[in-house]
Batch of 4 targets.
Target 1
Amino acid sequence: MIREATPSAIYMGLLAAFVGYAASFAIVLAGLTAMGGTEAQVASGLFFTTLAMGVCSIWLPAVTRIPAAVAWSTPGAAFLASASALPGGFAEAIGATIICAVLIVLTGFVPALGRAVAAIPKPVANALLAGVLLQLCLAPAQALGAAPLLVTPLLIVWAAGLAWHRLAAMPLTILAFLIITFTAVDAPGAALSATSIGLPEISTLMPQFTLRGLVSVALPLYLVTMAGQNIPGFAVLELNGYRVDRQPLIRRTGLASLLIAPFGAIPVNMSAITAAMMSGEDAGRDPARRYWAGIFSGIGYVAMAFCAEPVVALTRIAPTEVITAVAGLALIPALVSSLSGAFSVPGKLEAPALTFLFAASGMTLLGVSGAFWGTLIGVLVWLLKRAR
């Protein structure tokens, strides 16, 4: 089996792990922090999420012999970062992520549930994702106005990286972030010296299960995870010629999400952008041997999981404007893609527009977030227009 590993697959797998982590770890941290997590709880959540990504990215490709790598739910983390904190704090948020994981597992066992998610009109689903992302994507502009000397270099490096190669934009931006942080912060080494690479403090809370958490967090988190990650991830694999048995993969990632949720972790799901790196010709000429790219991405993620504590400490001491700018820049490609998909059907623009506006507004009604109301209203308007 190991003889099937090619240098191209090994290189692309490790590169995919680095790109996947560097491009969006700030979003994951923002989501966990917005839900009320302490520094220890955020480090625990980041550790278990990254570890689950790694273990699943080794396990699933080894079993299926396709590059079925796994990623954290970047749209889900963005949703958590933009949502209002629940009254029950992080314990209620953990309860909501557990419910979300249960829904993913059920989707793997009940195909009808997956079909119900797929039945949501794609423009409405894309509008939901765009609305969730908008506030975070505004952060670079807001940060530029607040701290131009710190944020301008980030924007220049990001734009230069994007002009060179879109996959290089965020790794180069992270490098610029590190330089700016160590330049702008007094004695950053002192803050980092209290941390270490290894197993972080394991933080657990008794989860709180509430109807408000179900409707405001669990359901939207489930929808953006399925529509924003799992479905595109399967499509990428199929586009590259792989036969994908979706239900077992959904079950396994759902089970992994359920196991890590009590530790403050966000859901894991099929990778999409990094899957394109590992399932194409860059990962080797022989499609039957590219699954090794997924396995080596998993090895990379497992190694990076043990850096959770220093990563969280670094983001705590970094200027807030720099952190929010990095998170926003990472999400701009996803925002562009979701907006394009939301308004792609002429004559049916009102439904996605309403979904987008409600999801982006940050409003709550009856204790329920705008993401839920936006999806409900968008689907109803879509059906009414179709019935005419």
Target 2
Amino acid sequence: MKQTTEQLFAINFAGEPAHYAFAPGRIEFIGNHTDYNGGLVMGAAVTEGITVAVSLRDDDRIQIVSDAGDLVEIRLGNYTPLEGSNSWTNYPIGVTKVMTDAGMQTPTGYNMAVTSTLPAGAGMSSSAAFELATARALAALYGFETDTAGFARIGRKAENEFVGMPCGILDQGVSAFGKADHLVKINCATETFAVEPMPSGAHFWIFNSNKKHALVDSAYADRFRECHQALAQLQLKHPDAKTLSCICPEQLEAVKDELDPLLYRRAAHIVGENARVRKVETALAEGDLRAVGEVLNASHESSRVNFENSIEELDTLVDLLKLQANVFGARLTGGGFGGAVMALTDSEFGQVHADVIAAAFEAKHNLKPSIFHTRAGDGAQLLS
């Protein structure tokens, strides 16, 4: 990854990079849409991600080039979100603005080259990886100091306030705190982070439906709004509840008939998903991957029925995977409305099994899914 980034930098800029940084994409293991509802979530950083190379300039310009886009130039301090084909630069520019607002001194601009090994549109949060890699690199370049949680919050603030995506801390937190062969557990109410070991023999397979989604333009924002509307109704009975995650299942069921049916389903997903995160945590501690898989399947069913952020293509992939003896469980990963499914499998599940699923999926939907096998990897880091 670093070599490819180095080559892209050399083609576009004079001199050598001062620093390289890498940040991984992530799998949302369990805890769908709980993060911005003050809930619990578990995720895994993956070995694939985004690498950036940076150097200082001697003028007031910022130039950014990626392996998938043209070189874009802006003036230092002229931080306005871009539209169209250059909108991908909103992630590093947003991070630059957040860090500058937090006190980072930028007497001159910078050059940045960006390369990615993450599959586009697969729901693995390339945006958070881009934000975290940028933050790590710029911190080294300009002498800005913060801790791991601080980097995660920088990325989240850039995405919320500059990019315009009302996400929680899941994506940036997992990318920041990832650890090889571990899951990252986040309490989003307190924004506390911990890592939990994965039992041996657990493997991740990602099936990207290649049904494209663009979260900013999708129903993601609608779900965000609906969750807050559900909370407002529940607060009439439970005024101390600051988030949906403060509501227990018994409290929700007691007022079911008083809630708007759609808002009840949205709340039922969040309340149930928090309970499922706790079940997974217990099953992982016991090394019971079958029990973990059952909860993953239940999570997807709730996404399909209650939160309605699944689509037919994702449901097909989950149904096909559940028929495989070597699959513990499967669910959509990420925001939904397209994208990818994650399967938790044993070590016997291989490419032959994956190809059978891909063929059945293509026969039904006339789409060829992209498949890759990954493991839990380390979090965002400065490479040099």
Target 3
Amino acid sequence: MLAIKNVTVVMPDHMIPDGVIITDGGKIFDVGRKLNIPPGAKVIDGEGNYAGPGLVDIHTHGDGDRYFYDDPHTVSDTLLRHGVTSVLPALYFNLNRDEYIAAMDVIEKAAENGEFPNFAGYYMEGPYLNPKFGCNKETNPWRGAINKKDYAPVVDRAAEKARVWCVAPERENIEEFVSYAKMKNGGAVFSVAHSEATPDEIERLMPYGLRLGTHHTNATGTLESFPECRGVCVDEAVQYNDEIYAELICDFLGIHVHPYLLRLIAKIKGKDKIILISDAFVADGPPIPGCEEAFDINFDHSGEIAGSRMTLDIACRNMMLHTGCSLCDVFKYASFNPSKLLSMHSKGVIKKGNDADIVIVDHKFNVLKTIIKGEEYYAD
């Protein structure tokens, strides 16, 4: 049994001062104000800081220096030290069929051996996206026609562990792929990604479970209906449809999403439909002119932005900086909302019976301690 005292407990829409959290058997046993701590419980003194649910990063490729499939234990360790207690390794469309399968083999072996305790399934950023968009697009092996003999082995291997499948709805015969992926995992969420689809093309896939916009406003097209007249495309469809969540990469300089645009998106989508992601990638290209101080994002050698070098706690701090949002808000964006999207019902909020995944932060969202499954986490 573990008890955390002297914390303000962060809930989705309020805080509990003088809070105490009691865990037992990897679950939240009780939470409230000035609770009595059972005799014999190990006690963590939060020293007046804040305790919220463990962070849930649904879209990251690694830790900025290595991919999950290169060294899953090291990446897992890094993320845990930054408060991420659940993570979906993102597998990108630059992998071919055999590389997708090999990557999953490595990741799942680490999880089975206890070296990847925060593994929560896959974020499949591919295979069938629009080859016009995204870093490393010149290496995309999935440019050809959608073919079951190509995609079926990947979908079959991922099966129920694929929580998110990214698609470009404008790809010819994309419904064939979506139908097959849905058959293999009825609970999978589909996301519009690396796309210049029309709203009609996007909304046609919503009955299958399209409920997410991948790194909203990044790697999306703009369709001009008439000269000097803005058309409607992916970003407008994500903003218009209340059922669709918007992923946001929130870097320090506001390069992925300008701070003004972050505030606009928050105003349109509301607090319930924003999900912060890190989208950490691995690239060693030089910064493009004007971005020399962009320490938390990556560039490839063609001059394209190639994801970030952030962990999710950094994205939370940046979101507070750029939008003035509260600790309640960022815990919602980085834990409650992604858990709700993916039907991870035992995560995302500190309440009795939920998983005892907890992060203690200060008022600036610096991570002080991570608890996963009721155990205080120590790096090896």
Target 4
Amino acid sequence: MILFKNVRPIINGKLEKNYDIAVENGKITNIAINIDEKTADKVYNLNGSILASGYIDIHTHGGGGHDMMEGSKTALDEISKYHLITGSTTYIPTTLTADIPTTLTALENVRNYNSPYARIYGTHLEGPFISLKAPGAHPPAYILEPNKENTKWVWENKDIITRITVAPDQKSSDWFTTECTKNNIQISLGHDASIDDEINALTDNGASSVTHMYNCTSRCSRRTTPHKHLGLTEVGLTDNRLYNEVIADNRHVPNPLFKMIYKLKGADKICLVSDSLAIAGNHGGEFYLGSGISKQRIVIEEDVAIIKELNTYAGSVTPISKMVANLCQNLNIPLEECVKMGSLNQVKLLNIADRGDIKVGMLADFNTLDEQGNLIDTYLGGVKVDK
């Protein structure tokens, strides 16, 4: 048995007073005051440190010099290491829009991979079912309508697909959202040029989140009539059925803008995501979006990844752990709420029962934090991670 002594755990979004936590076989078996040290094989005396659940990154393309679209064990090893040492103990590898054979290779690679580092929870298809009018950094050539013919491969791989980003203005998106919901695939809305009627139709049929709010999310606009329609930005901020993914790196979403999102959605409906790329965690070398698929070079400038030739953001290089510290220190958001946005909300969105909080029976994946939200140490299955 592994024993964590004198910790202040954040349980269900609330910072508790000193407890001891017992761990056996990688799971929490007891949370109590003054558990006898003599019963333990190993003791971590944390002297009143804050203990939080490991963060859960539900939207990340890569890190540590590699992208999940490479489709190799080496790539997933290095991505998993990067997430673990930065405090994300679970992550969902996210695809870049690509040709279907390349995407299938990436999915099969995840299916066959058994991570000794950060845990993988399925995959997230950010494409190809996005809008040609809002591709962002995704190659438009590979964007598809989510109709019956173009989605056969999705149902054949539903065992490894956890969530999919869909543009509500895409033809067949209503039908596709209904089918995904039936097959326990979570739908997130994004990369769109849609209007409120289209968005509401998908939300009514099971869509439950917005992909990286304020980044390729449609705004209030007119189409062919004088009547103005709300876009995904406005609907996402005001419809309480929709969680908002937010890249809180003070670049994709500047801190004053995050403050507004937080005021409208509250801590219960925001999921921090890194949207990290291969270049995250690296300080040298040349990198391409999706490991060369789009042939667009990415560089880091002022703490954000950009496509130099297009002068557009490509993704983040900031892990969730640094986002938590940023929000806690610079916006004075209570630490327990920042932690909730980094782990608990993600498991509620995806109906994951065995992680994301500190309760008996859950995985013993922890981060220790200081009072300002800075990451101190990470534990996977109760074992301290070497960094």
